[in-house]
Design goal:
Blueprint: H1 33-42, H2 44-54
Helix pairs in contact: 1-2
Amino acid sequence: MNPPLPKGGPRPGSGRKPLGEEPTVIVAIRMLPEQREKLQRLGGAPWLRKKIDQAKEPE
């Protein structure tokens, strides 16, 4: 009889996939629940990253 296979633990290919080749950082911001809901409706983190990339730097 074979021993039971272990359960749990990391699996190949599991976990959040990278956004690209560059490393990313986690940023926490405070906002009202209504603002968070709107952010989600607008597209969440991908939408926010796009808006940041499109924004002009202050002079």
